[in-house]
Amino acid sequence: MTRARLALADGRVFTGEACGARGEAHGEVVFNTSMTGYQEIMTDPSYRGQIVCMTYPLIGNYGINPDDVESRRPWVNGFIVKEACRYPSSWRGRVAIEDYMREQGIVGIQGIDTRALTRHLRDHGAQEGVISTVEADPTRLADKARALPGLIGRDLVSEVTVETAHGWTEGRWDIARGYTQPPTSRFKVVAYDSGIKWNILRQLASLGCEVEVVPASTPAAAVLERKPHGLFLGNGPGDPEAVPYLVESVRGLIGKLPIFGICLGNQILGLAFGGSTYKLKFSHHGANHPVKDLETGRVEITAQNHGFSVDPGSVEKAGLVESHVNLNDGTSEGMRHRELPVFSVQYHPEASPGPHDSHYLFQRFIDLMERGGFSR
């Protein structure tokens, strides 16, 4: 057994067993309350710069397969579990999670009290940390954690976005056929890649959208040259105020075509309208967060992954109103414009692997494009 240690910036240290690659991992330590979806979590670009602790004690039970990935590679800086299953059981599984982590260079730790860690982060806030299999001195590890830069002010989007624009041709997954061929497209959608999950693109394609994914640095004029019916603002990592170039591009597109934003896209949209964002104490990560639709009163169970939030009061003068609210802590979970075809949510309606309560939002975007938008 190779010993591993996790040290937080406030000096708290956990000792356990190495899981995955050997070495050191640095990043903001957060917890995720999902029972499943660990493969999607590891490959979600929104986790760039973070070490993820899974609160569910048994991770890896159904292994890793080639289908359940959300981007071109894993992005988590490190991974923490109570127990990594060495002998997974699933007809879709191809490799055990620890072998996958080792192959992909993901440094992890297991065998620690993950619920104690979760309580600590909940009480004291998400903070920088270091996982190491090579440094035995807890004091030096904690010093390394305190020296890390943190997420505020860091442009992590530039690290995960694509370099060149590309199309998308894959539809939703079917148990009998795998990923399907989408129907003939009716709408052209430009999607900003600030770390966009592939299942978002699958949802759009399956509803008849010809999707072109563009780098986050693409200016507004280049988007309009493509003559899209709609604009999609995807998820992504880190501080939204650290990507002013994307905010400026979106500001130049408001009022010119229908816009739908998810997660970081919601925050970018708020900033583009002149609003403000702030960092949450311990972030929202998991597949079981209750959100209330303020228009219908309906409560949805949602998947979430964000550490920053929009101040809804800061965008009221710009014509935006809060549309959804988190029932756990009252934070804003969505906005819509009173007059323009613009709306966004802070959570993840594509929710791969689930839940699926919020899939209707993609159809809402389709409806906006059907009623008109940018003239081709």
Can you tell me about this structure?
The chain has ten helices and 21 strands. The chain is of the alpha/beta class and 376 residues long. It has helices at 38-42, 97-104, 114-124, 138-146, 157-160, 198-206, 220-225, 244-251, 264-272, 360-370; strands at residues 3-8, 13-20, 24-32, 50-54, 58-59, 78-81, 83-84, 107-110, 127-132, 166-168, 173-174, 178-179, 187-193, 209-215, 230-233, 259-262, 277-293, 299-310, 320-326, 332-337, 342-345. Helix 8 (244-251) packs across helix 9. It is globular and about 60 Å long. The longest helix has 11 residues, at 114-124. It folds into two domains: 3-146, Glucose Oxidase, domain 1; 157-370, 3-Layer(aba) Sandwich (Rossmann fold), CATH 3.40.50.
Give keywords.
376 residues, alpha/beta, Glucose Oxidase, domain 1, Rossmann fold, 2 domains, 7-stranded mixed β-barrel, 21 strands, 21% helix
State which percent range the strand residues make up: 25-35%
Mean pLDDT: 96
- Structural Rg: 20 Å
Q: How helix-rich are the residues, as a percent range? A: 10-25%
Summarize the structure in short:
The protein is α/β, with parallel strands linked by helices and 376 residues long.
Strand and helix map with partners:
Elements: E1 3-8, E2 13-20, E3 24-32, H1 38-42, E4 50-54, E5 58-59, E6 78-81, E7 83-84, H2 97-104, E8 107-110, H3 114-124, E9 127-132, H4 138-146, H5 157-160, E10 166-168, E11 173-174, E12 178-179, E13 187-193, H6 198-206, E14 209-215, H7 220-225, E15 230-233, H8 244-251, E16 259-262, H9 264-272, E17 277-293, E18 299-310, E19 320-326, E20 332-337, E21 342-345, H10 360-370
Helix pairs in contact: 8-9
